[in-house]
Structure formats: structure tokens, C-alpha cells
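Recall that a protein's primary structure is simply its ordered list of amino acids. Everything else, from secondary elements to tertiary packing, is in principle encoded there. The following example makes that idea concrete.
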Amino acid sequence: MRIGVPKEIKANEYRIALVPAGAEALVQHGHEVLVEAGAGEGSGFPDELYREAGARILESADEVWAQAEMILKVKEPIQEEWPRIRKDHLLFTYFHFAASEPLTRAVLDSGAVALAYETVQLDNGELPLLTPMSEVAGRLSVLEGAKYLERFYGGRGTLLGGVPGVLPAKVIILGGGVVGTNAAKMAAGFGADVTILDISLPRLRYLSDVMPANVKLMFSSRYNIRELLPEADLLIGGVLVPGKKAPSLVAREDLKLMKPGSVIVDVAVDQGGCIETIYPTTHEDPIYVVDDVIHYAVANMPGAVARTSTLALTNATLPYAIDLANRGWKQACLRDPALREGVNVVDGKVTYEGVAEAFGLEYHPVAPFLAEG
């Protein structure tokens, strides 16, 4: 199979979907790897390393898209890339379709097969291709929140961990999943006063056993969230419903309960966000203010630490990419139920229920497509 790796062109996105070691592994399996010139430089992987791994370097994105059968990316195709998508393409990347109807319709119109990292799901509910980036984003959310609490950026001028004689900042985390857990570890490590809210009692019981004493657990409800907002210096949104738009947990009217100069970091923004007033921002222009509350909503947070993120992501995605290339997407998905959950769009039809629900589109189970041929 010819596997194309174009350069990511979303604003301030420096990751790449395949490291040289991954290219070498695919070549050893008998596949041809096509990498756009300069695609790995933002993560510290120059073209020469890909050449040494057996990949072929192409000068333009148009060449990569035109020659490849499977496209490996990190972020969803942006509007500039939509005309390059063909019916015979297999796209393997993050899509987060439920947050963007234009993207969904563009991929439907192309007729391509879209296999989304974020909905590949194991029997135990784990999302193995989302987990590494959720770990990175969860940890980054605390670093970014701490920065924007500084007075220079308009924050309250509060140090997360305080100092002897001065109380630490209060960090409220919505969601006790991978993002929330990693955010809590970081915030607790700084010495902050941390509270995690979640709707799963088993998850809260687990977190109560593994978290340090400065992390408290609370059942997530509208009432409890509103009770905590006046205390929050930093509010982190880390709620995920696989393949669906994130639920809105903090309404516009709730912002008046928060202290002026407090900070919201919504890691769920690429799934629509769990704060009503959130909308995506970029690393170049990461924050905006609503009702005296700073909002940080960069949709590709892990891109800020591109090398770490690329290595973590490709550790998880490479085995699936090799399986797709070796077997073809139909046989690979028949063999692996987790991978089958990643199929969101086939031949102009939505095959993931959460995406269909988001836009009132007809849902088509993927099984009949796998049975064809």
C-alpha cells in the first residue's frame, strides 16, 4: 500500500503522524511511504531520517495526496485540504466530526473512508489512540492555566501552590477521565487545592485511592458545579463522550459566579467544549475574556510540545496503521472490533452513531460495508 504523510497545516501544528522508525516498520512490511518535504521538522525529524528509513520524500502536499492510498495525519483535514480527498482514500487521523458539520459534509461528499483515532475503542471503554494526547493536554492545561493566572496576562495574580502563610489556588476539574486525572496530578504536584467532579461513582472511588490528599472528589451535578465556581481560580474542562459533542456543564450565566481574573481551560474544545462560552483559539492567540474570566481554548494543545506529542501518539497509532496497510481497512476492522469503532464515514454515509446524531444525519452501521467483497 502507498501511505502518504502530508505536513500538518493547521495553525501552529508541529506534530507529524509518523516518525522515521514507523516509516521503517511500514517499509519492512512491504509498503511504500510518501512523506511531504519538511513534514517532520517541527517535531525534530528532518527529511534525511525518513530517507534513511526507506521513505520517499515528495516536494508538495498535492503529490502526497495524489499518490497515496492511505493518508496518515494528526489533525482533521482543514478546508484547504478538502479538495485533495478522493473516493479511494483511507484517512486515518483525529477528526472530531461532531464538532464540525462543514468538515463532516466535506468528507461525506468526498466518498472517502474516514477512520478516526478518537473513536477507536477497546472492550473496556478505553480509547487507546486518544489517551496519549489526553495525557499531554491534561498536563498542559495546568501549565497554561498557571501562566494565565499571572497578573501580566490579566489573571488574579495567584500562584497555584501558594507559599507558607498564603493559601494555594483552588483548581476545579470537570471530568475524572484521562484529561482530568493528568491535570489533577500536575495541579496537586504544584501544591494546589484540587477538586475533581465526575458522574461515575466507581471512577471517583478509584481516584480516591490513587490521588494525593490535596485532591478531593465530588459527584458532578449542576448544583455542585455552581457551588464550587465562586471558589475556583482555575477551572479545567475535561469531559468526553466518545464521538459526540461534549455536554455543556457551565452556562454563560454561571460566569458571574466566578472571581474576576480566574481562568478557564477547556480541553474538550475540539469536541465542542463543556463551557457554553468556549470557542476554539490558536497558540498564536490563545485567550479571550468573557465577563472578566479568561478563557483558554487552543484546540490542538499538544502541538505546543510537538516532539513529546508525536512520539506519544505514534507509539499508539503505528500498530493500527500497520494492520490497516497489511490487511486493508475492511479485513483489519473485521479482525479488530476496537478498530471497527473508529470507522466514522464510508462512501458518503455516516457509520458512527454519535456523528449522525450531532447533525440529524442518517446512521448506517458499518457491518454491511465490511461484508462487501
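The chain has two domains: 2-119+306-371, 134-299. The mean pLDDT is 95.
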